Amino acid sequence: MNEATRFIHTLGADPLTGAISVPIYQTSTFVQEAPGINRGFDYSRSNNPTRRQLEKLLAELENGCAGFAFSSGLAAIDSVLKTLSSGDEILAVEDIYGGSFRMFEHVYRKFGIRIRYVDTQEPANVFDHINAKTKLVWLETPTNPTLKITDIESISLIAKEYGALVVVDNTFLSPYLQKPLDLGADIVVHSATKYLAGHSDVIAGAVIVKDEELAEKIKFHQNASGAVLGPFDSWLTIRGIQTLPLRITKQCENAKKVAEFLHGHPLVKNVYYPGLEGHKNHKVAKRQQRDFGGVVSFDFKEDLHEHGRRFVCSTKYFQLAESLGGLKSLICHPTDMTHKSTPVEIKRKVGVTDSLIRLSLGIEDADDLILDLKQAFEVVEQHKKSVLASR
To answer: Quick one: residue 18, left, alpha or beta (phi over 0 = left, psi -120 to 50 = alpha)?
Structure first.
């Protein structure tokens, strides 16, 4: 079956009624035939028919043995971290999502979990820092917001030698563009809010695992902690997933055109997009991904905070907002938004400059989006001229 067809036909019609759309079981509890005797459901925190269909779909699309849906991406990440014990270590990608960094540093470190950060673009860095206490190797590929790529297969081989599990945050690509479990990873996490749901109308998270032992652990923590996805949000996420191949194909197409436009602009210093042949990790991305994604970042030759702020406040079609992966194009100034809580020295180390801009390409016409960026550059240029004239 073609991959795009799998996204639509994995679930099929409802076996009870023949409904072509998954029913929404908006209920908190289920009537039992006798104490402990039920039809597979007793309480919606533990299990819900709509959520179960979403979890089945997630597992199928990531080629895992089980999937789990959570109330947010961070709730999904939290469920994985709960498998650790005091004294365990995480070896994490240094260019990590700000929310993951906050959870690692301000929630789990005080419980005796040690976290070390390395540049995972080079597998040798992982080899040099991994040890017997390392239980999780935490990857994001591409990273947020500088779109660095990690060779999942190479890192997984290293981790296996030490008995560590490899976790890949696959939010930026989705299972349509990249399948980390097929490349050797053990656990995949998603902020399903982004490309999976895809319409900027739901907050959701997902965990997909490779084997039954991991599935039992995640299921226990999902039920024990209770941060589950509700029936209606599960339905919205299923609906979004079914159109993902169409959406993300157009978003990738738009991202390539925008990246090429930015690459030749006189005000731009760096363009971060793995689809450009000059990107440091282009060959790795080409090998392990179907396409290069719908996010592009860039910064200015004059790395001025004012340039970044003025630019993001001047676009018309690119809406200034957190998040990514939706139908509408979004623009973000990471140093003031997604990475505001990240210490300055860490931001500088991983490439989050004062003028860095992150673009999440939607499904609009690419020519309109490029014209929008052109006029925003003109606003910055006019401001520069007015400042020089006033001196």
So the answer is: left
Confidence of residue 391 (pLDDT cuts 50, 70, 90): low
Residues 238, 258 within the same domain: no
Structural domain range at position 43: 3-242
Element spanning 166, H or E = strand 165-169
Mean pLDDT over 273-277 rounds to 98
Give me the count of residues in the chain: 391
Query: Active-site residue 194, yes or no?
Result: yes
DSSP codes, 295-363: EEEEEESS--HHHHHHHHTT-SSSEE-S---SSS-EEE-TTTTTTTTS-HHHHHHHT--TT-EEEE--S
Q: Is 299 a catalytic residue?
A: no
Same domain, 157 and 15: yes
How many domains is the chain built from?
2
Q: Please say if 217 is a catalytic residue.
A: no
Same domain, 131 and 90: yes
Q: Count of CB atoms within 10 A of residue 6's CB?
A: 15
Check 179, 194, 310, 347 and give the catalytic one: 194
Asked whether residue 347 carries a pLDDT value surpassing 90, the answer given is no
Q: List the catalytic residue out of 25, 97, 108, 117.
A: 97
- Say if residue 390's pLDDT is above 80: no
Across 332-360, average pLDDT:
90
> Do 224 and 344 fall into the same domain?
no
Residue 253 and residue 152 in one domain = no
Q: What is the pLDDT of residues 1-10, one digit of tens each?
A: 899 999 999 9
> Catalytic annotation on 169?
yes
Q: Which residue has the higher pLDDT, 381 or 341?
A: 381
The one catalytic residue in 45, 56, 114, 269 is 45
As a whole number, the mean pLDDT across the chain is 96
More confident residue, 385 or 317: 317
The CATH number of whichever domain residue 384 belongs to comes to 3.90.1150.10
Q: What is the pLDDT of residue 199?
A: 97
CATH number at residue 46: 3.40.640.10
Same structural domain, 281 and 140: no
> Do 271 and 225 belong to one domain?
no
